[in-house]
Amino acid sequence: MSQLEILQIPVLNDNYVYLAHDPQSKQTAVIDPAVGGPVMDALATKGWTLTHILNTHHHADHTGANLELKAETGCTIVGPKADRDRIPGIDVEVADGDTYALGKAVARVLDVPGHTRGHNAYWFKESDALFCGDTLFALGCGRVFEGTHKQMWNSLSKIMDLPDATRIYCAHEYTQTNGRFALTVEPGNPLLIARMTEIDQLRSQGKPTVPSTLGLEKATNPFLRPSSADLQQAVGLVGANLVDVFAETRIRKDNF
Ligand code: ZN
Ligand code: FE
User: Which is the catalytic residue, given 52, 59, 83, 111?
Assistant: First the structure.
């Protein structure tokens, strides 16, 4: 078992690409390489050699540099089995409950569909790190494009079962907009109000608000809080089942 060194690379408008390096074996993965240039630059700066690409889902802003990086480094591409046809250059298909070893650092794979038909999250338990792509965001969740609201809620519930200390390495810096929406459905949540003050401060300094922790998300992210009485009241579904409350919250965000 080994602790990863994780490097966050902001690319495009609001994407985060991550390098995860196992210091013992010297293996290095890139998670969701939207673009290749900044990844190669970061590898050179760190003196790391790319051995793996881990893809969460097929969207171009997560797989755009797969083939370029594979051609340049000969790395192995790991991605969701349920979407193997749409992951450029995929070598290894993984699905729920599988483990994948990056040297001595082991990831457990979670199937978290909803945003897309196949969507993986990679949980490095020893490093308290979850790479969750576009499923869970800081104060938000991914749009439900290819799955159902029920699927997305099940996926988020699966993530909620991980330890609160888990760091949430999501793939976009959407936090400030997410937070503005969150305040419309839980305006009286003191932890949310305090968090938004911090977020506004970080963003005004051009700093990332990611990663957060699962514990913080559970306390402030409306998409993990359909059991909140205030949220149920705000969306007009007091006492309804959690899937319906989640779905209504997601639909309101789509129209926000
Ligand atoms: Zn996406
Ligand atoms: Fe994305």
Answer: 59
Cβ–Cβ < 8 Å for 170, 136: yes
User: How many beta carbons lie within 10 A of that of residue 206, not counting itself?
Assistant: 7
> For residues 128 and 122, is the Cβ–Cβ distance under 8 A?
no
Tokens encoding 167: 């760091």
C-alpha of residue 102 to centroid of ligand 2, in Å: 23
- pTM confidence score: 0.98
Ordered DSSP codes for 66-82: HHHHHHHH-PEEEEEGG
Whether 121 contacts 150, CB under 8 Å = no
Is-catalytic flag, 96?
no
- Among this protein's residues, is 62 annotated catalytic? yes
Segment 116-153, tens digit of pLDDT = 999 999 999 999 999 999 999 999 999 999 999 999 99
